[in-house]
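Notebook entry, structure prediction.
Reason for the run: the old model in the group folder had no record of what sequence produced it. Starting over properly, with the input documented here first.
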Amino acid sequence: MENRFGFKDLIIIVLLLAILVSIWLAMTQSDRQWRKLDSISSRLEEQGRDLIAMRRTLESGVAIRGQAKTATADDPFARVIAARQLPNFAEGGMLIDSFGSNIGKLTPLVSSDVYASTVQGFVLESLATRDPETLEWQPLLAESWKINDRTRERDAAIEKLRAEGKSDEEIQKDESVPPAIQVVFIMREGVSFSDGTPLTADDVVFTYQFTMNPQINAPRDRAYLSRISSVEKTGEREVTFTYAEPYFNAFELAASIGILPRHFYEPIKPETFNDSVGLLLGSGPYRLPNPENWRPGETVELLRNHRYWGVGGAIDRFIWRIFTNDAARLAAFRNGDTDLFSATPDQYVQMIKDPSVTSRAEAFEYQNPVGGYRYVAWNQLRGGKPTLFADVRVRRALTMLLDRQRLIDQVMLGYAVIASGPFNPLSKQYNPEVQPLPYDPDGAIALLREAGFEDRDRDGVIESPEGVPFRFKLTYPSGSVNYEKQALFMKDAYARAGIALEPDPLDWAVLIERLNTKNFEAVTLGWTAGIESDIFQMFHSSQAIQDGDNFINYRSSQLDSLLEQARRTVNEEERMKLWKQAHAVIHEDQPYTFLFFPKSLIFVDKRISNVQRVKLGLNPRLEWFIPIEAQRTR
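New structure, fully documented this time:
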């Protein structure tokens, strides 16, 4: 029998297909509608919680902070409010920045790079903040504070007990000895985290206790907070930070801790928290779209926190795109795909001469008084064994083999000043009597010979007395042309003395892991600085631990003593003498070769308004805005 496919059969098949497509579209549309309804339901629940919180706030008689609020002298939002009065001010738009390496983690405490810290700065808030121009402290999460300095009373009590023959251990346990300093904060009312949960004194206490939990992988932060004896809730809105011993930075240490929401972080087990990469929730003016699901390799995006308790920023979204090499990052800025660009000196020189750049972007060039320094760190202990860099003569020789002024001229094109230690030349801690080691190849070679290094087999590379060739890898962030130029400069300089340097560029996440495990030979990076830098974490012997910032295993009992004394000296004049002595000891030991303090070289797209130079660099981004005609959506 012959099978025939007729017109009627075609019609039936077409109708069946049409029915199937209709059913699929209906199901898809239904799914979309349910998702939309679910989203609307979630938003309504959030708004309901906000309305309840607002009603409670009104019932308590507390004023709700509005965008039209008039600024007062101690108002941390005074500059933000002033920006809103400018003629072309507008809300909305997006600002696109860039990072030069991948970010490993955004989770607070377990993240360890400056990029994560930058993002966290928009999400987490502290009890007080500094005015970027006057540098004076202003209330933020706390509305006021009181500092009780009982150092003299404490010292008198200790002297009395010593006169009675008490030992130091007994004195330490004696409850009659008062604490040296107490900082009491009164928490501001009406503050909430970005999910609508109120921020209270309990969150402050939790943040301290959570950080100090040894199960949390946060040795750097614990070292930083180690001076605090306790943090207690001493009233409904009162939190007291107690210091058993005097500490010069007592107020700043307490005032600058980023407060974590207890309800969000407390349920998370320590091992889960330590392994997490994107758990970030705070009370700040910006928030992650989802505080739990960011993953490494993704673009970082922050949204304006519409629940923000203060006067928030005008820009709707901050975006950071990730670039693993300088060329791609520069191309993105030139193409207008990003709005900010932190330039290397060679890039800066070219860009300020390029009309296509200067017509659309403003250049900012300055030596930052709180700027950090570039260094080469020599690992003195690896795998439990001393390295080639364990001998101070070797470390001093390695510094003397580098013509740092020539390095600045050739690699930094003059946009830097030579460093002699960890303190900024514009800071009070800097010791002007400490002069940088001179460029002295002959003197360096003599030091190496004194340490037993000679080219015994005539292969062009010197060997230790045990016959170990002086070869090492210099680790640095991959994708950076500036670091690569520096590495090649150093390779050439050391080759003249019979030392073989092998450049070792690594992705940022891998590099951080090597530092944490101390699995490297030498590394070149940069440290940031503060108005008064506490270098305890980088150079004290106690910090030569797993994940500690003394990743070169440097130990000096003399420096340890100076750092401990400086940290507990409240009198500024006496403290500066101790910092200057510490500067001299570090210079003598050369645990790092301190290279230079670079200038900041920044380009900002002119569509971004109200970008200003202030004492701390550029004014905060909360003060920036984008006029309506300059806003973009991608």
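Summary: Residues 30-73 have pLDDT under 50 and may be disordered.
The old model has been moved to the deprecated folder.
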